[in-house]
């Protein structure tokens, strides 16, 4: 059974009746659900007594020229997708308006430092402040013991992990593998903005990451540098790339002799649509 809750008051009433002594899994989303979101919910259902999926298009993480107004809001269809896939009890927390998350007079920002200044943070000022603030609110309101996020938003997950560690929040963060369509494009609600020709252009993003991954698997980090730099230089010459980098997967810092796993991260624009993707690769430094 799927129960939809639209207000914080109703959520608290439900918690007082059913949450005591139970493990609670949380899947924060902005809705317009696809198989990637549902795989997170499936993991939560398998590991917790109660699972909550939140559907809230968070205004604080959108910049002034981004797609907040046109971001797809499909609550009815989302609930049907959950009902079709799950027989277990699922709680959908879909705040009826912004004031449920940010009450009148709300004037608090949760801000993580250095991790939010690179990659997507460099291109989207204030974005991660909006992410951490809403996620903190959802952690607090849901009383979750476990939370599930997709690897596609790798930097976001690392930022949330840092917030959770620094603030001693009593919640376990699980990062799930990227869900991809058959052509290799990472699933995203923004993919629907792409025309057929746009989509073919967008495939340069995952194909570039796979190309770099194959080089790293064949040689040591040191020996692969010439080939990798050739790929990076040829791609970055295209102004559609916001960034294309290889960083230490544990902390998003530059690769060094102690690095054992890297993350290949890219952000690529097709028209007005911005897509991100990544791949993790174990390496031998030298």
Tell me what you see in this structure.
With 286 residues, the chain is α/β, with parallel strands linked by helices. The protein has 2 domains: 175 residues, Rossmann fold (3-Layer(aba) Sandwich), CATH 3.40.50.620; 94 residues, Pantoate-beta-alanine ligase, C-terminal domain (Pantoate--beta-alanine Ligase, Chain: A,domain 2), CATH 3.30.1300. 37% of the residues lie in helices and 20% in strands. The protein contains 9 helices and 9 strands. The strands form 2 sheets. The protein has a 6-stranded parallel sheet, with helices on both faces. The protein has a 3-stranded antiparallel sheet with strand order 7-8-9. α5 crosses α6 and α8 packs antiparallel against α9. The longest helix is centred in the middle third of the chain and has 16 residues.
């Amino acid at each position: 059974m799927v129960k939809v809750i639209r207000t914080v008051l109703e959520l608290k009433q439900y918690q007082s009746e059913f949450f005591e002594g139970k493990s609670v899994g949380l899947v924060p989303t902005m809705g317009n659900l696809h198989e990637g979101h549902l795989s997170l919910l499936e993991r939560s259902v398998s590991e917790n007594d109660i699972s909550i999926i939140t559907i809230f298009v968070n205004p604080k993480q959108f910049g002034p020229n981004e797609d907040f107004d046109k971001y797809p809001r499909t609550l009815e269809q989302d609930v049907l997708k959950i009902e079709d896939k799950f027989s277990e009890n699922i709680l959908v927390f879909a705040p009826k308006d912004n004031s449920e998350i940010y009450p009148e007079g709300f004037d608090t920002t949760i801000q993580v430092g250095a991790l939010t200044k690179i990659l997507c943070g460099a291109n989207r000022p204030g974005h991660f402040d909006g992410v951490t603030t809403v996620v903190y609110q959802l952690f607090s309101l849901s009383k979750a013991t476990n939370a599930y996020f997709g690897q596609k938003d790798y930097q976001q997950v690392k930022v949330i992990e840092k917030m959770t560690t620094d603030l001693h929040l009593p919640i376990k963060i699980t990062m799930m593998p990227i869900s991809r369509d058959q052509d290799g494009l990472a699933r995203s609600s923004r993919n629907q903005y792409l025309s057929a020709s746009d989509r073919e252009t967008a495939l340069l993003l995952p194909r570039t990451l796979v190309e770099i991954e194959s080089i790293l698997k064949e040689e040591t980090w040191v020996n692969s540098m010439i080939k990798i730099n050739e790929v990076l230089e040829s791609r970055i010459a295209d102004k559609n790339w916001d960034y294309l980098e290889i960083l230490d997967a544990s902390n998003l810092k530059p690769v060094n002799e102690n690095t054992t796993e890297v993350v290949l991260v890219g952000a690529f624009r097709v028209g007005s649509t911005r897509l991100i993707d990544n791949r993790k690769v174990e390496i031998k430094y030298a």
